[in-house]
Amino acid sequence: MTHFILFDLDGTLIDGVDDLVVAMNRLLAEHTLPALTREELEPMLGDGARVLTQRAFSARNSDLNDGALSAAYDKFVSLYEATGYRDTYLYNDAETTLRDLHKNGWKIGLASNKPTRPCREILSLLGIDDLFTTIAGGDAADVRKPDGGHLAFALDGMGYNRDAGDYAVMIGDHANDVNAARAIGIAAIAVAFEVDDAKARTLGADAVLTRFAQLPDALNKIA
Q1: Is 81 exposed, middle or buried (CB count within 10 Å of its CB: 0-12, 13-18, 19+)?
Q2: What is its EC number (predicted)?
Q3: Which of 72, 82, 127, 158 falls 20 to 30 Å from 120 in CA-CA distance?
Q4: How far is residue 145's CA from residue 160's CA, in Å, rounded to a whole number?
Q5: What share of the chain in percent tops pLDDT 90?
Q6: Which domains, ranges and CATH numbers included, belong to the chain?
Q7: Residues tagged active-site
Q8: CB 15 within 8 A of CB 120
Q9: What is the pairing mode between strands 3-7 and 167-172?
């Protein structure tokens, strides 16, 4: 039996909100729209960059048609990549915990609704891309979280075989993560690094973390 673990990215492994705010506000400025604060943008996260773009413009009373939204989304991704992710950082104990899991035989993957290219760039910049068997952003599969097919796609690329007794768990901070895990019958652990832990406990996960260092104990209890 092999153990597989999938992670979300934003709000789970990293805090990258400040770079997202910078990129989105540059885009809004190009459309002569007022800037968003971190507090305004943060609740918009979790459903991918295209939905984030739509929500940001809607928050400034500017609704985009499909063509305009596609153009704005492409520009946002470009502006986001141009930040160089200078203000993006790993949560405390994230790298140590990941390296311990890897050393202990866990296969590690990423399943994020963020586009795959920024996911790869961020993991490389932070020096942990070597730990990941697969990196499946929101554009990697035909579906994305909360559709369980996104996780199934990532796990398939990692060699997961339920019939052989393999074990899999999804780690994330959003209902999308837990719901996607439930959709394909795998375990889920919620993290409360960017959200109130009381809210995280309403997601229906098998465990809730308030610190990354709690992950090994949580896995021992549910795996």
Answers
A1: middle
A2: 3.1.3.18
A3: 72
A4: 18
A5: 94
A6: 3-15+89-222 (3.40.50.1000), 17-82 (1.10.150.240)
A7: 8
A8: no
A9: parallel
Q: What is the mean pLDDT of residues 111-118?
A: 95
Q: Which of 210, 161, 206, 165 is nearest to 188 (CA)?
A: 206
DSSP string, 151-190: HHHHHHHHT--GGGT-EEEEEESSHHHHHHHHHTT-EEEE
> Which stretches within the chain are classed as H helix?
17-30, 38-41, 49-59, 66-82, 94-103, 116-125, 148-158, 175-183, 197-200, 215-222
At 188, list the tokens. Answer: 């889920």
Query: CA 141, CA 148: separation in Å to the nearest integer?
Result: 11
For 120-174, the pLDDT digits (tens) are: 999 999 999 999 999 999 999 999 999 999 999 999 999 999 999 999 999 999 9
Buried b (16+ CB within 10 A) or exposed e, 118-133: bbebbbeebebeebbb
At residue 151, φ and ψ (nearest 5 deg) are: -70, -40
